[in-house]
Design brief:
seven-stranded mixed beta sheet, two-stranded antiparallel sheet, 283 residues, Rossmann fold, alpha/beta, 31% helix, 17% strand, globular
Amino acid sequence: MKLHTVVASRLPAGLLAVPPVFVFALVALGAFPSAQAENLPVDLTQFRIARVEYDSVGGWGRAYYEYEGRVWARWETDYPQAEQNFGRRLGELTRITTAAKPVQRRLTADDLGDFPILFMSDVGYLDFSNEEVDGLRDYLANGGFLWADDFWGEAEWAAFEVFMRQVLPDRRWQEIDVSHPIFKTVFEIETMPQIPASTFAWRSNGETTTEPRSMHRQPSGSLETPMMRGYFDDDNRLMVIGTHNTDIADGWEREAYGQWYFERFSTLSYRLGVNVMTYVLTH
């Protein structure tokens, strides 16, 4: 398997000098049109994140849940609107040519290497096969990158760590603090953002950004501190990140759910997302 190379163009020089909030004000506070996946052929000259489709354990309320009048599998959380909105913003804020249509892939897919970045969401009940472990290990060894997001508390992190111990048995995660270049690549990010799902943000009027303990796998432990953790190879290349105790993709998905949520949370989500993508594509 060979990883398809997508080269990011040089970022506009002025982007670094403009205050981030003003940048986002320039690209319209209004809602995007209703997000619908466009039926376009996959174009490997365009940057595209592949959402990982996976199985979860636990049945109703764990592997599956109901929200906004439909049933979601865990892997589907925030999909596809998060990727659609983020792709548009990434194209507006950088010179990276982004694809219009989000895609999903199993870790056993033959064309997994065509995607420089994989994204997993809500991995707290993750289940996996030996074939999926091998597929991700090969993908990472060939230069790929995985971002896991939106899992809270100790039990949900443990589920992901069990998986990663199978994929990278000789590696252990390291905490990535805000001194790392990934927080400085485009925007200067001084604090790891905690993004709650929009429902919880509205309920508390933004007074708390921690999601309710009852909504997550037990024993949950502490949900208060957002963090980024990563796995590195022998050359100190960052292969995997987990954004824990935070829901970065909900900030992308829900940007049109009111100006307050956009300004309070979506701007932070986009800043981190732009930094991560730019860092990965240039390292």
